[in-house]
Amino acid sequence: MSAHPLVEIKGLKVYFPLAHGEVVRAVDGVDLRIHAGEAVGLVGESGSGKSTLARALLRLLPLTAGEVWFDGRPLHRLPEREMRPLRAQMQIVFQDPMASLNPRMRVGAILAEPLEVHRIARGRQAWEQAGRLLERVGLSREHLHRYPHEFSGGQRQRICIARAIATQPRLLVADEPTSALDLSIRAQIHRLLRELQEELNMAILFVTHDLHAVRQVCSRVEVMYLGKIVECAPVQRLFTEPAHPYTRTLLDAVLEPMPSQARRPRRLPTGDAPTATRVPTGCRFHTRCPIAQERCREEEPELREVGKGHRAACFYPLSGGTG
Amino acid sequence: MGGVAALRYWRGHPIALLALLYLIAVASAAILAPVIAPYRYDAQDPAAVLQPPSAKHLLGTDELGRDVFSRLVYGARVSLSVVVQVELLEVLIGVTLGLLAGYFRGRWDALIMRFTDMMFAFPDILLAILIVAILGPGLHNVFIALALTGWPSLARVVRSQTLSLREREFVESARAIGLSHTRIILRYILPNLLPTVLVAVTVDAAGVVLAESALSFLGLGAQPPLPSWGRMIDDARQLMRSQPLLLVYPAVVLSLTVMSLNFLGDALRDLWDPRRGRR
């Protein structure tokens, strides 16, 4: 794998001004790297800014500040016209598959479109390739002539995935791709994503609040809270040794299949999440943190190494607290 | 919308169905006027003026001995052709401007919508009269006047619908694929605007039929001997006391057409309403 990362985000900020002068700081200074072929999970509560970060990375939203580099190219400086050809290399799958398919286009046309626009194939050839894509995601060639509303939720999401991989992108952003689906379908979709990632050697940024899903798909996890990354670690390590108290509460919030065998008492966050319009001073999590100290109220912690490939933004990390 | 569901809908709404059938009848009469009408609209018979209805003259004759039924049929042709032309021009202007305003937002939006608001500030029919007064009377100028006064409401509807469409995820995914604005507008926005536009056009057509008649009634539209329903009502006015039927025929046909268009518009709106549990 190449030395420099496929995606490098530096100091990214995405703010949304509200009518009465307040500002939503949805993404508030994020650094993030994704290497080629790597599957990274991005987890956090709703409202933590993870979807905004994902969309900003693909320049689907205007950036307020910061840099986004893709394969050595500065996306933050490219005009939309120059972005377009690059989009073949970075695709996205959205949460609601019905909403993200044009109800008035046949599946074949939907899948042929990226091929035609990026001049990979055209006409009959594009439909031929669309048929193969459908088969690759577990549907059949006959489905080419149907409309999106004729499918189930899981099948629609497969169509969206087929469209996303049509141009063989190097990065696939999956924005809560299974949150709108039945529990029974989720694992299948996760397996499909995992397979495709290996097959196409494609990097995945998997945005979710479902920690089980992260385990199935990703090798590394970034935890986001109120617009900032508060912890990142290899998947196994994050689950066994979370360093940030917020990550700990997230893990505790996952219901154990066997409550009696739970390893430790559940510690859930107290109080409501502050809103992104009024971000607390100091550490953003101190208002809900069970172990907050005086220092946390005044000073904002930076991400610091707490173990191998493991960083956390906390003055009093729960594990590997050597520094 | 599946064909079966549509059929079921029409069966449950007899008035809408009647309106549809009536409009189909009027439209066929308009298209087939030379075949259906027993006489030419300007064929005079000085020997048979103001005849009562008979086998020879289905609805009688007017003061110049012209067959009233034939004039009604040709009148449908005149009135409907004005409606079709007006709506086409309105769609061209209204959809284009509304779509651009809603899709690109910002400066375009402000500019276009302030202009639309300005047009709204004038009473339509007065503005139409003004335009015809400037251009001179005649059907062609009526059509231009009505289209120029009618498009703002369509532009507004299209704009608001476009505003909501452009935030939908399938438009966002179109951008993510790397489609150009032109392609997104033509393949993603426009087809999804179609139901809205059709409903708006149907309801608006009712107003155009009425406005055309009003202008013709005022002598600004169809010039004699060309019949339009408004023109016929105007002609019949002088004989209202002695020959009230001459006034009643065109008035009834006109009212039924306007009502039917309104019913049809409502029916289409229901039919395409996503909350009606489509499947």
Describe this structure in words.
The complex is a heterodimer of chains A (323) and B (279). Chain A is an alpha/beta fold and 323 residues long. Chain A has a domain at 242-323. Chain A is 30% helix and 22% strand. Chain A has 10 helices and 12 strands. In chain A, the strands form 2 sheets. In chain A, strands 6-7-8-3-9-10-12-11 form an 8-stranded mixed sheet, with helices on both faces. In chain A, a hairpin with a 2-residue loop joins strand 4 (65-70) and strand 5 (73-74). In chain A, helix 3 (107-117) packs across helix 4. Chain A is globular. Chain A starts with 6 loop residues before the first strand and ends in an 11-residue tail after the last strand. With 279 residues, chain B is mainly α. Chain B has a single domain, classed as Orthogonal Bundle (MetI-like fold), CATH 1.10.3720.10. The termini of chain B are close together. Chain A binds chain B through residues 55, 58, 60, 83-88, 91-92, 94, 96, 99-105, 113-114, 117-118, 149, 160, 163, and chain B through 168-170, 172-180, 183, 187-188, 191-192, 279.
* CATH superfamily caption of chain B: MetI-like
Low-confidence stretches of chain B: none
**Quaternary state, please?**
heterodimer
Mean pLDDT of chain B: 90
Largest beta-sheet characterization of chain A:
8 strands, mixed
Number of helices of chain A: 10
Defining traits:
heterodimer; A: 323 residues; alpha/beta; eight-stranded mixed beta sheet; four-stranded antiparallel beta sheet; 12 strands; 30% helix; B: 279 residues; mainly alpha; MetI-like fold; 11 helices; 75% helix; elongated
Topology:
The complex is a heterodimer of chains A (323) and B (279).
Chain A: E1 7-17, E2 23-34, E3 39-43, H1 50-57, E4 65-70, E5 73-74, H2 80-86, E6 90-93, H3 107-117, H4 123-136, H5 153-165, E7 171-175, H6 183-200, E8 203-208, H7 211-217, E9 220-225, E10 228-234, H8 235-240, H9 245-253, H10 294-298, E11 304-307, E12 310-312
Chain B: H1 3-12, H2 14-31, H3 33-36, H4 68-104, H5 106-121, H6 124-135, H7 139-166, H8 169-177, H9 181-217, H10 229-237, H11 244-272
Helix pairs in contact in B: 2-4, 2-11, 4-5, 4-7, 4-9, 5-7, 6-7, 7-9, 8-9, 9-10, 9-11, 10-11
